[in-house]
Amino acid sequence: MDYRILSKIKSPQDIKGLSQKQVEILCGEIRDCIINTVSKNGGHLASNLGSVELTVALHRAFNSPEDEIIFDVGHQCYTHKLLTGRFDKFSSIRQKDGISGYMKPSESEHDPFITGHSSNSISAAYGIFKAKRLKGESGTAVAVIGDGAMTGGMAYEALNNAGNEKGNFIVVLNDNKMSISQNVGAMARALTKMRNKKKYHNFKFAFRRLLLKIPAVGKPLYRAFDAIKDAVKAIVYKKNIFSSLGFNYLGPVDGHDVAAMESLFKIAESYNKPSLIHVITTKGKGYSYAELSPKNYHGVSPFDIEEGANVSDKLNFSAVAGNTLCELAEKDDKICAVTAAMTEGTGLSKFAEKYPERFFDVGIAEQHAVTFSAALAKEGLKPFFAVYSSFLQRGFDQIIHDAAIGNFPLRLLIDRAGIVGEDGETHQGLFDVSYLSSIPNISIYSPSQYDELCYRIKYVAECDGISAVRYPRGCEKPSDFTDFKKDYSVIEGGKRAIVTYGRLFSEAMTAKETIGDISIVKLNKIYPLSDDLIKTVADFDEIYFFEETEKSGGIGEHIGGRLLENGYKGKFTVHAVNDRFVSAAETTESLAECGLDSNSMINILRK
User: What percentage of the chain reaches a pLDDT higher than 70?
Assistant: First the structure.
C-alpha cells in the first residue's frame, strides 16, 4: 500500500501541522499498516486498532520526548512506534533483531519506560513528573492506561499517591470495555459536552481570578461558588473514585475524535493539579473481525486479512491443563480455578463455562490471586491458580507470606514457562525456578508432554503444601516416553549423561539419536532434590545439565552444589540462560541462540 502521509512521518512534530482531513487519512493508513504487519508477524491487534486516534491526538497535543508518554499495557503502542520514527522498521516488529512489540527505552527516546506488564504506567509517569520538577525541567508526563490495567492494584496505589500533586500530571484512561463512572441523563450529557470545551475552562479560570482580586470577600466567595459547583456535579454525575482521590476528572470523550481529545489534553495541561481524562474507544476499530470479537483478536498469530484470524482449537499445553481441570472438577466439587485476566490464555474458557461458581477471574491482580487462592485452600477447597510464569513474579511475596509459611496447599499452574518467543524480554518465563526453589514447603514439577502434564495436575490435587506445575508455551514435541510417574527417570546409554527436564527432554532425546552413547536423566520432580537422585547422577563420569531458565539459582546449580558436598570428582557443566534477558525471536531461534536445542547439545558433547 502507498502510505503517502505515514511514510513521511519521522517524528511526532511532523503530524502537528496536518489538517483534520490529513489526520483522518493518516489514521486510516496507520490502521492498514498495523493490520498488514500483524497479519504477517502476529501480535496484538484489537488493542492497537482501538487506540489509533488517541495516540495521534496525544502526539499532536504534547511534545514527545520532552513530554514523556507511557502506554500501559505496552501492547497498545504500535501507533506510537509508527509516529516516532519507526515506520521503516515496523515490518520487523516482534521478530529477531527487530523492534519490540512493547515500549523499550533502548529502542527510542520516545519510549520513556518499559511497559510489558500492566498497571505500572501511573507510578512510572508520576515518578518522571516529580523528577522533572525537582530538576527544574519543563514538560509533563502522561500515563495512558487501558481499562484492563486498571484492575491492577498498583494503578490505584499510584493514583492515591499522585492525587495530592500540585501540578499538571496527566492520566489518560483508555476505556474500551466499560464506563468507569456511568453518567446518566440529558443534563449529564449536556454538562459533559460543556465541560469538554476550552471556552468553559477559560471562563472558569478568568472567573476565579476575578473573584480572588476582590478584597476581603473574594476568597470566601470563590470557596462558596466552588462548593456549589462540586455539589451540582456530585448530584448530576455521582462522585467517582478519581475525583475522590484528588484528580480533576475530564470526559468522557470520544476516543476516535482527534480534535476533541486534543482540546481536552490542552485543558488538562493548563491545570495546576492532576487530571484524569476518560477516553471511550472501540477495541478493534476499523477491522470488522476484531470489532466483533476483540477477545479473539487481542493477540493473534499470522492470518489472512480477508478470511480473518483462525481461533485455533489445536491442542497445546494450556488447553491440556484446562481440560484436565474440567475432568477433575466433574468428580470433585472442591476443585476451583483462578486466573488473573487470562482465561483464554491459560486454557480455562471451558472451565469458566462449565463451572462458573468455581471459576474466579480476579483481574490483573496476581498478588491478590495468590492470597485469595491460599485462603480458599486454607478452608479446604482445592484451588489451581493458572498464571503465566512472567506474571507470577508479581506474587512472590504472597507465595512466601500467605501460602508457604502456613503450608497451605496452594496449586500453581505456571504457563509459558521457559522461552516464549516473540513477546521478548518482558514475557520470558526464565525466573520461576530460581525464586520458587528458594521457598520452603514447595514441590516443583516440569512435565515435558501432555500425558505427563495431565498426570501431574491430578497428582498435585491430592498433595499438601505448595505445588508448582510448570509447562511451556505451545505444543508438545512427540515422544513415546511414559516413565514419568517417578521423581526422575534414567534412559541408559553410557557413562556420560545429559540431565534435564521439561521441554528440553525432547531436545535431549533427539541429540541421543545422533550421539548414541549418552545417558539421559529426566527430572520429573525438579525440586526438592532427593538423596537418591544425587547418588544416581554421581555415578556418571561426565554430567551435562541443560535447563531452560536462568542459570543463577537454577536446578543445575542446586545439583552441582550437592555433588560437590558429596565429593564428586567427575566433570559437571551447566548450560542455561546465563545472566541476560532473552530478546524477541521465534522460540526455536532463541533455544539455539542460548545453546539449548538438540544441535547445541550434540556440538557440546562432541567437543
Answer: 89
SS (H, E, C) 589-605: HHHHHCCCCHHHHHHHH
The three-point CA angle 600-392-416 to 5° equals 40
Q: Which of 366, 547, 548, 589 is catalytic?
A: 366
User: Among residues 283, 358, 470, 473, which one is catalytic?
Assistant: 283
Q: Is 470 a catalytic residue?
A: no
What per-residue string of b and e applies to 274-297 under the rule 16 or more CB within 10 Å gives b?
bbbbbbbbbbbbbbebbbebbebb
Task: Say what the pLDDT of residue 594 is.
Answer: 97
For residues 41 and 176, membership in a common domain is answered with: yes
What is the tally of structural domains in the chain? Answer: 3
| Residue 192: CB atoms within 10 Å | 17
CATH of the domain at 580: 3.40.50.920
- Structure confidence at residue 312 (pLDDT): 61
Number of other residues whose CB lies within 10 A of the CB of residue 298 = 18
The pLDDT tens digits of the residues spanning 172-212 come to: 999 886 333 333 344 344 444 545 555 555 555 555 566 55
- Predicted confidence at residue 528, as pLDDT, reads 97
What does the buried/exposed string (b/e) look like for 322-355 if buried means 16 or more CB atoms within 10 Å of the residue's CB? bbbbbebbeeeeebbbbbbbbbbbbbbeebbeeb
- Any catalytic annotation for residue 283? yes
Give the DSSP per-residue string, 432-447: HHHHHTTSTTEEEE--
- CATH number of the structural domain spanning residue 412: 3.40.50.970
Map grid coordinates 544441535 to a residue.
599
137 shares a domain with 10? yes
Catalytic-labelled residue, pool 60, 394, 473, 551: 394
Residue 457: what pLDDT? 98
Stretches where the chain sits below pLDDT 70 are 147, 177-213, 216-239, 311-313
Phi-psi region of 579 (alpha: psi -120 to 50; beta: other; left: phi over 0): left
How many CA atoms within 13 Å lie on the side-chain side of 7?
Answer: 4
- The reply to whether 291 belongs to the active site is no
Q: 450, 320 in Cβ contact below 8 A?
A: yes
Under a CB-based contact definition with an 8 Å cutoff, are residues 44 and 72 in contact? no
